[in-house]
Amino acid sequence: MSTTDPTDPMPASPAPAGLEAVLLPRSHDIGGFEVRRALPATQRQMIGPFIFFDQMGPGEFLTGRGVDVRPHPHIGLSTVTYLFEGEILHRDSLGTEQPIAPGDVNWMTAGRGIAHSERTAAARRAAPHRLAGIQSWVALPKHLEESPPDFAHHPGATLPLIEAGGARLRLIAGHGWGATAPVAVASELFYADAVLAPGAAIPLPDHEERGIWVMQGQVEVGGVGFEAGRMLVFRAGDAVSVKAGAEGARLLLLGGAAMDGPRFIFWNFVSSSRERAGRGTGWAWWCRAMRASGSRCRRSGRCGQGPRSRERSQENYTTYGCGRAYVIVGPRSRR
Known about the structure:
Elements: E1 19-23, E2 26-30, E3 33-39, E4 50-61, E5 68-74, E6 77-85, E7 88-92, E8 97-100, E9 105-109, E10 114-119, E11 129-139, E12 150-154, E13 161-164, E14 167-176, E15 179-180, E16 189-196, E17 201-203, E18 209-221, E19 224-227, E20 231-234, E21 241-256, E22 264-266, E23 269-271, H1 274-277, H2 282-292, E24 296-297, E25 311-314, E26 317-321, E27 326-331
């Protein structure tokens, strides 16, 4: 894995009004497929409830290759998948099997525990194919961290589409720009995909915390330009407008109300409790999470230990070693 400093130096000239920080993603390569992570960063853990933000691709898989994110658990968050190109097949421990296409939203709420996988279906592997998209995590409010797991799929055609002044904006979740998306959310937020023609501008909605991921092209804020691959974070209360450069731009706009306290992240777990998210008794939490998500442990989680760093396979199961037991996530043919 290669990394860069998670913060981009502020412009040498005076920073544009309202701009609080500019974040650079950490990048790593998976078989020629680049993934860039903008959140969490050293300078900023969250923007509203958004605590994790990955850009997948754009990239191309050769024949026979594809995404293979094997079954794994989550707690205390919602995962949000949104694609620009390609397709991913989602399966989870609720029994869901749902492909996602460009413009659709897959919103999976882990709550007290869920396990899921994301893969490229066999039919798409029969030929070279492209993939590009965003996966983000939305932290749950404290009172919903132990809520029952849930999954919702929303086709792109059901999401609000706003077109004005050379801007085309699809509201993925939350509310803003006079519209509300049908996706059920647990806290005050907004999340949108905007394509701007050259010179077109778009205002940021009036939310407490706001950010923009520059997906393609270049944007200007207060006369200062920013290239693709930057997460711009803005101060609350300032009126901010973002203008596309000479070649246009594509942006992800996100944010919302500040969370009800800090969050701790360990592996795929998010919690307001350091003990639950960390190593210590967090391993017992891990075992409890796996049981809650429908997985099975040969020792029924009595050891209270977490997984070893290496993954083991037995027959057609994906398994995670936890010392003296195996937590069995599920048959590969089904999960």
